[in-house]
């Protein structure tokens, strides 16, 4: 009896194991390399930020602010100029909110109490002026190429330094009124931290050209309220508290 060769009705299945495994392996390798590169970039950025904050008045606050923005940015680390723009943007929003609080406080103050009314009114003026300076700073740094121009970077140094002086003057004017001071203390101190960190980053990107002596010789202190005299500014500088246009806000750092 003749026998027929037994053949399967269906052809043998193609083996897809090795190519599939190879593709999966390559994918995992690529993901690992990208993750490693991101970790290295974040580490290098963190080390750079630590160096920037080392000269700050409050390095811990500076690092906390920068770390928060780095986390918000995701895997791709922010460059210093991008970080500076981000902090200035937050400063503009923050000073607008603080000015609104100051306006409400002023409206609640008894007009008879002239000292309270004067302190709050001065603070409102200082915050409004600071908002304009921050907006000018953000505009000047809109293009990276502008930072390379000495005139632009020096202007921003002066503006942010003036903003810091305005914040400090605002709180000093409210110290005699506990209630008003307590209301404004936290938002203004938060703004001071933002401005100080911004100034630290700016100084690392483009060190200021003006010395303290240059500032003392200048008469165009248009970035401060009219009632802040040149003698007042000189007293602050010579007292070792503020160096408004040098990029170093305090004698021992920002």
UniProtKB/TrEMBL annotation:
Q: Where are the transmembrane segments?
A: none
Per its UniProt record, what Pfam families does this chain match?
A: PMEI (PF04043)
One GO MF term on file is:
enzyme inhibitor activity
Q: Which residues form the Pectinesterase inhibitor domain?
A: 44-201
Which NCBIfam families does UniProt cross-reference here? PME_inhib
PANTHER family per the UniProt record, alphabetical:
PECTINESTERASE (PTHR31707)
Entry protein name? Pectinesterase inhibitor domain-containing protein
Taxonomic classification: Eukaryota, Viridiplantae, Streptophyta, Embryophyta, Tracheophyta
